[in-house]
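Lab notebook, bench 4. The sequencing result for the construct came back, and we need a structural model before the next group meeting so we can plan mutations. Quick request posted to the team channel:

Model the 3D structure of this chain.
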Amino acid sequence: MPLICLYTAPLAAMRYSDVGDWHYSHKGLEIRVPRGLSDEETLLLMVHELVESFMVRRDGVHEVAVNAFDQAHADADEAGALSTAPYHHEHAAATKVEKKLAAVLGVRWATYDRDTDRLYDTVKAALHAPD
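Done. Here's the predicted structure in token form:
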């Protein structure tokens, strides 16, 4: 298993408009979540990305295919939830784990969903703001 680095990142450090991002680098697996959520919500996002990235690698789905699909479906609420996503199964499994952990932590899913939607809008505005 590679080294796993989890980061809360400033908005400008996000690779593209999303609230959770994973990729493999020379450091190992890097997971970035933008700042702006509670500790519990940040953990939920990080666990989702960790499970998804592990399963994608295990199942032989290439990171390039995941990134290309995400970018081609940037207008989708959750690209991985689309049945045509090359990592749909892995995304769905990660979401199940995320929902179970939310219940264990006492995080209301509707509130978490609202907070992550709001953060997504903030990330998108920050990355697409004129220089």
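The chain has a mean pLDDT of 91.
Will bring this to the meeting.
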